[in-house]
Design a protein that fits this description.
144 residues, single chain, alpha+beta, six-stranded antiparallel beta barrel
């Protein structure tokens, strides 16, 4: 009787520990990093004379903001991703293997060769990866 209750308790603990584990990671390769426009920043200042006289003489400077955009090639899908943290994005090594998983609405990525930490990314676009059979069929098809 004691052995049966010990066995049932072990099964219960095993079920709880399995439930807390993360999703399975997929592997992919970081192909390239591009800089893409993601907005603009305006800096404006009012002059003292403009404040007193009520004129709208402002000096404004507009600066184009660029964001890092990575291309991550998985087994079946090619992802275009941007860092979730715009102020302090982590620089990823191009050509290295990365592990990633989709968690809720974010892509969580880690590169074991780099710091090994998980970083959250926003998926900008996804395209299906062409298989070698499709590429060779397109190359050998006659043009009419």
């Amino acid at each position: 009787m004691k052995a049966l209750s010990l066995f049932a308790g072990g099964l219960l603990l095993a079920g709880v520990s399995v439930a807390k584990q993360h999703d399975d990671y997929q592997t992919g390769t970081l192909l390239r990093m591009d800089s893409s426009a993601c907005g603009s920043q305006e800096k404006g200042s009012k002059t003292v004379a403009g404040e007193i006289l009520g004129t709208d003489a402002q000096h404004q400077k507009t600066q184009q903001l660029l964001c890092q955009e990575y291309v991550l090639q998985g087994d079946k899908i090619v992802y275009h991703i941007r860092p979730n943290d715009d102020k302090h994005p982590a620089l990823l090594p191009i050509g290295e293997t990365a592990q990633f998983r989709i968690h809720k609405d974010k892509l969580v990525l880690r590169v074991p060769e780099s710091d090994g930490k998980e970083h959250e990314y926003i998926v900008v676009s996804m395209t299906p990866r062409e298989t070698p059979a499709v590429q060779s069929a397109a190359a050998t098809s006659p043009n009419r």
